Amino acid sequence: MNPAAEARHYNRDNKGLVRFDWTVIEAEALYGLPFADLIFQAQNVHRESFDPNRVEAASLLSIKTGGCPEDCGYCSQSAHFATDLKATRLMDRGDVLAAAKRAKNAGATRFCLAAAWRSPKERDLDQVCDMVRTVKGLGMESCVTLGMLTASQAVKLSEAGLDFYNHNVDTSPEFYGSIIKTRTLADRLDTLAHVRSAGVKICCGGIIGMGERIEDRLGMLVLLANLPSHPESVPINLWNEVKGVPVNETAQRPDPIAVARLVATARIMMPKSVVRLSAGRQYMTDELQALCFLAGANSIFIGDTLLTTENPKLDRDAHLFARLGITSELAERNSADDRGADGRV
Ligand code: SAM
Ligand code: DTB
Ligand code: SF4
Which residues contact 76 (CB under 8 A, 6 or more apart)? Predict the structure, then answer.
């Protein structure tokens, strides 16, 4: 069978199969299916492993902002570019606890701590381990993203009870070198291997809208889907505009239908992973987000800011969830307030 015909029949013939041998040609064949066929297939795959009406809400906190020695060409926090961002010191545990409580009250079930480091120093890592224990103490899932880790650092985080480590491949192997020079893709894969060996779940995805080709977006999905195990969480970020970084020279906001196609392709290729609509949701209409949920996205970041950039307002997200009948702590918290006097959403 040719790849296009195979793509059309993939779900019918391979129900529930998790594969690690994807090719870009196969990914292109799925991505290029007639839209209705692609979304139908993605929705079928989605329903095999997930409640289609549930979307996870996660919250982010930048515990150490700016002054980063890496040169990721999209990032406001790199010390290589003049982005007007003020660098901060590592936050203290009390402030992290207060922020985690606020996030929990807002409806987040996962709390993700991010630091702008190439890799953590041992003293800093001990403090982050304390923060992980604090987040776990609130009954939330914990995630941290601290740059590159050694094997022993990953074990330390695991022993502190860490649930997820976020470390993105960011883009395809071919496009990677145009965006980042100070850290190789191989370095990133080493960190992911240490995290996996330590028994911590992986959150790994990337960014679109930096000027990459569709083949690069699909190459990124192939890279993720052919890792030794699929990342449990796959964040798909639309590049959030930042003044002063090199990506401004190449950036192109993706076509909304292309975003939905990519989410559906990710869903089919990594059928048991949680796919998160991450940065860039403020550029999406409610209708596009609804289409992405239909295509298999089942997580978002909530809260007015991500790390240094904007995110949709909590009320807008709660209202969207309520209109779509999505169950989440976020919808439960706010749905009553979003109804009119007649009780209609
Ligand atoms: N410094 C750590 C690292 O890079 O390993 C963790 C934090 S970093 C901000 C986490 C991820 O956020 C990056 O790998 C990238 O995929 C994403 N990201 C950063 N800046 C972004 C932007 N302006 N728009 C969209 N995604 C972005
Ligand atoms: C991920 O893939 N997206 C999040 C999280 N992992 C750490 C970060 C998005 C950052 C967006 C840019 C900013 O706010 O600085
Ligand atoms: Fe530093 Fe992370 Fe930003 Fe890269 S993405 S410059 S590593 S904070």
Answer: 66, 83, 85, 242, 244, 245, 307, 308, 309
